[in-house]
């Protein structure tokens, strides 16, 4: 197990270095620059002088020197978590903006993703174990129906009926206009109240996939010899279903969960945009619209690192659940 973990850790470090390097190169391979974007807004009033261009570069903190010097500076910024100043929300720093949006995305998408995975997996196990009964037909049909709706369509339906027509929940924001962010019970309740519709959107649209995936994988597992042998030995149905069938059938679902959990940091851009929820996805959308290169670069790096960490943890869990993968 130790050799397996060391090998996976080495692969993680190598992939992380490649992702960080690629994140450094891609913006520099794109046509134009942040300075050109800022000058384009000023050029309407006439040509911009070289002194003005130099002043804009200094104000935006555009890196100087050759590519290697910029790369070394960039690695130092990654290690120290110093990503400079945002162009869109100047003079706020990129780290400050991410720190403000990060908790909302983690609370909303992280908790909902975990709940949807656990609930969908358990329902999928029950549906497969009681296949060809109403306990199988009901969640399978309803899950298939719900998963056909895209995120933004479900969000718009909930926003219209539960927000504008019935006035059950707020239609935008993470908290009320009169609330002041603080770690108090009233503020926590207000945040939870505003997160109901976005959370319900993600839960409804993702739950069906976990149910169907787990059901199909477990039905295939139930036909294996070791499950038949366990049943022939007179073990209880719950023991056979959980410890024998579900333990092996959950591996494909676990892979999907690792990708979904890593993608949590990226946020659901469309859902956060529909509800005006100030998470990472909403921040990334504004960064792209405003050509905010430092903010985009930091967010892309954060998303990439989150996916890599989630997949690394899933690989370790794979080795625990299925010792065959260690070879």
From TrEMBL:
Name it. Peptide/nickel transport system permease protein
Q: Looking at the keywords, is Membrane present? A: yes
Q: Name one GO biological process term.
A: transmembrane transport
Q: Which residues cross the membrane?
A: 101-129, 150-171, 191-212, 254-275, 295-321
- From the Swiss-Prot or TrEMBL record, state where the protein is found: Cell membrane; Membrane
* Organism of origin: Plantibacter flavus
Pfam families the UniProt entry points to: BPD_transp_1
Any one GO CC term of this protein is: plasma membrane
Taxonomically, what lineage is the organism? Answer: Bacteria, Bacillati, Actinomycetota, Actinomycetes, Micrococcales
Family assignment from sequence similarity: Belongs to the binding-protein-dependent transport system permease family.
> What residues does the ABC transmembrane type-1 domain cover?
102-314
Membrane topology qualifier: Multi-pass membrane protein
Give the CDD domains listed for this entry: TM_PBP2
> Which keywords fit this entry according to its UniProt record?
Membrane, Transmembrane, Transmembrane helix, Transport
SUPFAM superfamilies, per this entry?
MetI-like (SSF161098)
Main localization of the protein described in the UniProt heading: membrane
């Amino acid at each position: 197990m130790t050799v397996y973990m060391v090998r996976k850790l080495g692969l993680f470090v190598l992939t992380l270095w490649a992702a960080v390097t690629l994140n450094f190169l891609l913006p520099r391979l794109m046509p134009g620059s942040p300075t050109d974007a800022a000058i384009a807004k000023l050029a309407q009033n006439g040509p911009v002088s070289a002194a003005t261009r130099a002043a804009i570069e200094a104000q935006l903190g555009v890196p100087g020197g050759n590519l290697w010097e910029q790369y070394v500076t960039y690695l130092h910024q990654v290690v120290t978590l110093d990503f400079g100043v945002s162009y869109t929300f100047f003079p706020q720093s990129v780290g400050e903006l991410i720190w403000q949006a990060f908790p909302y995305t983690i609370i909303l998408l992280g908790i909902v993703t975990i709940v949807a995975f656990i609930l969908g997996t358990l329902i999928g196990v029950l549906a497969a174990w009681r296949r060809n009964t109403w306990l199988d037909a009901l969640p399978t049909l309803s899950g298939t129906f719900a998963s056909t709706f895209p995120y933004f369509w479900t969000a718009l339906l909930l926003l219209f009926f539960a927000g504008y027509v019935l006035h059950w929940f707020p239609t935008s924001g993470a908290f009320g206009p009169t609330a002041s962010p603080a770690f108090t019970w009233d503020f926590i309740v207000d945040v939870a109240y505003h997160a109901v519709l976005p959370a319900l959107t993600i839960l409804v649209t993702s739950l069906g996939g976990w149910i169907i995936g787990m059901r199909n994988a477990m039905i295939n597992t139930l036909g294996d010899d070791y499950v038949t042998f366990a049943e022939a030995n007179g073990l209880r149905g719950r023991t056979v279903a959980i410890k024998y069938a579900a333990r092996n059938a959950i591996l494909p679902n676990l892979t999907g969960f690792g990708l979904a959990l890593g993608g949590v940091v990226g946020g659901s851009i469309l859902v956060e945009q529909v509800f005006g929820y100030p998470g990472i996805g909403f921040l990334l959308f504004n960064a792209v619209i405003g050509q905010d290169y430092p903010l985009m670069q930091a967010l892309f790096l954060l998303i990439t690192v989150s996916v890599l960490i989630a997949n690394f943890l899933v690989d370790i869990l794979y080795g625990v659940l299925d010792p065959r993968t260690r070879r």
